[in-house]
Amino acid sequence: MPRSPQPLLRRLATAVGAVVVVLAIFAAGVLVGGHPEATGITRLPPPVRDAILGPDRTPVREVLRILEDGYYREVDAPRLERLSVDGLLRGLDDPYTFYLDPEQYAELQRDTEGVFFGVGMTVREGEGGAVVTGVYADSPAERAGVRTGDVIVEVDGRDVRRAPLDAVVRAIRGPEGTEVRVGFRRGERPRQLTLRRARIRVPVVTSRVETVDGRRVGYVRLAEFDRGAGDQLREAVRDLAGRDVRGLVLDLRGDPGGLVDEAVAVSGVFLPRGSDVVTIEGLHRARRTLRTNARPATDLPLVVLVDRNSASASEIVAGALRDNDRARLAGTRTFGKALVQTTRPLRNGGALRYTSARYLTPDGSDINRRGLQPPLRAADDPDTPADEALPVALRAAAGSP
To answer: Which of 42, 133, 280, 297 gets the highest tally of CB atoms within 10 A of its CB?
Structure first.
């Protein structure tokens, strides 16, 4: 005779009831302030544990949920989330790792395309404020008399001497046609300038022919390693090589770097195919050496001109050309940033830009913080209108004593 299903159902109901009671106890422990570890929830099977805790168990989200439900005033959750992320990243003690909100990330993407709205100058971090490292031709900054070496101390009445570099840049940039008041300091001389923002198209490559001691020398300047920089430089070098020049000067002064792929492409303008450019290594990526993959555009004698503001991709190129015995370095010590940044988009439309690896020059040198020291010293005096460093590099490229 078949067994009655009633006892089985009663046992199942009792078991389900026990689970419900246990879950209720665990949940109550969390609701009244118990930590998940103390209540034992973390030892439950994952489906049950996640049903109680939810998909996000980070302290930040937990604290925000508590504040949103119980704080005596309205909570600005996005602002608190941003502060918590910034605080977390500061714990790395790495100025090159930072969070970009959606607006900042969109701006970064526009920058790598070579177009932005601003006043036309490049800057770097300095002890007393952001330091101007370059001024674009025919820009609002150039027309107002801004010069390399000027220190930005104030923007629209706000002291920015201790502000993060990206905050200073964001404050100066803005809609086309609007005005921004910037306070500069050179030495002990402060001054205020009102600049009208404009559409700035970064002139990535500029070139010309110079004459020194009766000899023609090709001069080419690379402002940044944006997309297409390698192709633009190759075209300019081919043009100069066809104009009866004795040598070339590649000016990387004030170039803050950019895309690593473009650093390889720029190196390939001068190095044989298959030449080592840079070795990249990191905890979470395999050691890899990047090499040129194109034929050189010229074999003319080459001098690379650098300074304290030549960084990152600029140092990759200068180091590759030096270590492959292709160029002579002239100028002053470079910045010393031998680190590789990766940008990872986030679900909120922003991004995390973080240091993912370090790089070594072809001979194995780690130049982080030390930079490259040119054997041929050529220093420009920022307090004079003349460029004292360029003639030194031009004479070296021309083969003059």
So the answer is: 133
